[in-house]
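hey m, so remember when u said the C-alpha cells were messed up on ur end? i reran from scratch. heres the input so u can diff it against urs
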Amino acid sequence: MSAVRAQAESWFAAGLSAVIIELTSVRGSVPREQGTRMLVSVDAALGTIGGGRLEFEAVEQARALLRAGDLAQLPQQRTIALGPSLGQCCGGSVDLTWLALDSNTIAMWPPSAFRFELQIHGAGHVGQALLQALHGVPCSLTWVDSREAAWPDPLPSHPLTQLQTVYSESPEEVIHQAASGSYVLIATHRHDVDERIAQVALKREDLAWVGMIGSKTKRARILSRLEQRGLAASALQRLVSPIGLSNIKGFGSKTPAVIALSVAAQILQTSSQSAGVHPR
C-alpha cells in the first residue's frame, strides 16, 4: 500500500476532511503519469501531481472548498492545457479530477504502480544508503536481513515507495517470494550468505537483475564455486558484480553513499529498458 493511500485511510478514520486530486488522463509532455494522486487537507498535503502552477492552483481550489465546508462544489473533472491555461512550457494537457475523501474513494483506490520491485539483502551501511538514494522513486522494496535488529528505527518512508522488512535466518529463501521481473541486490554482512543468496537468485531466469557488492576477485571466487555446484554458464554470467556504474571512480567512490547513488542509477538505467510498470 502506498503512503498516500495509507494516509488517506488514516485521515478518513480520524474524521478529517480532505480532497484527493488525480491526473485521470494525460496527453503530450506533462510532469507526471496518468493515475497519479495527491491528498490535500486544509493545512497538509501528501504526494504530488507534478508541482508548478498546475499543482498550486489545484491545491488552492481544493483548500478553498475545504475551508468553506462545501465539498459538493468540487469540480469533478477539468481539462487543462498546461501552456495556454497556466503558462507552463511542458506543452501537454491533463484531465484533473477532485474527489472528496470518503469510503467510496478509498474503496476504489487504484493499485499502486511501481517502476521496479527490488529485494535488498543486507541492512548495513550500503543497504541503508540505498534506501536514502531511492527516496521518492516509485518502487516496491523488500529489505531482507538475517539479523533481527538490523534495520534503522524509524524506517524511512515516502508516499511513492512501498517498503517492507523481512527477517529470515535463511534469507536466500526469500528470493522465491520475488515477483517475476524483480531486481535483487546482495549486500549482506557475510560473504557466505551473499553466496547462498546469489546461488538461489541466479537459478531464477525471470529476475530482471541480480547484483552483488564486492570486488572482481570476490565475484570470480563465488562464481567458481557455483559452477562446481552445477550452475549453468548462462546463469553465472547474469551476476552483476562489482555493482554500480563503472565510470564512478576516484576519491570517495567506495563510500556507502556514493555506492548507493551509483547502484540506484544503474537500476534506474536498467529498468528504463523494460516496458510498462508493475501494478501491485
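this time it looks ok to me. The two ends are 8 Å apart (CA to CA). if urs says something different then somethings off w ur setup not the seq
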